[in-house]
Amino acid sequence: MIERTGDMFTTNAKILGHGVNVDGLMGAGIAKTFAEKYERNLKRYKQACKDKHLNPGGSVIVNESGTLILNLASQSRPGRFARYDWLFSSLHGAVEKLMTQEKEVLDLFGSTIAIPEIGCGIGGLEWNKAVYTILTVEKIFPKFEFEVWHYAPTS
């Protein structure tokens, strides 16, 4: 795991992940920034929620303009409703999906997955506990590495 401080959107990683709820709302926090930056992703995410294809612990993966976006359902609804088991399931499931097309994913997008302190902002999880979930997923899938961004506003 690589740890960085600053704006996650300055990363060189071509795979970006973030925590989402399953109500189809990206109105606050880093999810709001994803919604503003990635219109196709927002539409696919909202449709998956509307169709009940995204459940807590699941994920929706969208390729938008050469960036692979992992929408990781770490919470049931907006607010402090994230859970560690859903965080693990969503991370594990998403990386497992990437592994089904390992060569193509690694060739096109690389092996680094940039994420914020997932589930720890609005979601309500504690970073000192969530980090173990991330490290566990890395151990299960050693071809991928998480680049965790600790937010700090840029000047």
Q: Which short descriptors sum up this protein?
A:
155 residues, alpha/beta, Leucine Aminopeptidase, subunit E, domain 1, six-stranded mixed sheet, globular
At a glance:
This protein is an alpha/beta fold and 155 residues long. It has a single domain, classed as Leucine Aminopeptidase, subunit E, domain 1. The protein has helices at residues 29-37, 39-50, 84-100, 102-109, 127-140, and strands at 2-6, 15-20, 59-64, 67-73, 112-116, 145-151.
Q: What is the β-strand count? A: 6
Give the strand line-up of the largest sheet. 1-6-5-2-4-3
- Output the CATH homologous superfamily: Leucine Aminopeptidase, subunit E, domain 1
CATH class group? Alpha Beta
Structural class: alpha/beta
CATH architecture: 3-Layer(aba) Sandwich
Report, as a whole number of angstroms, the end-to-end distance.
26 Å
Helicity, in percent? 25-40%
What's the pLDDT, averaged over the residues?
96
The largest sheet is: 6 strands, mixed
Q: What is the string of SSEs from the N terminus onward?
A: EEHHEEHHEHE
Number of domains: 1
In terms of DSSP E residues, the strand content is 15-25%
Question: Over all CA atoms, what is the radius of gyration?
Answer: 14 Å
Shape label: globular
Pick out the low-confidence regions. none
CATH topology: Leucine Aminopeptidase, subunit E, domain 1
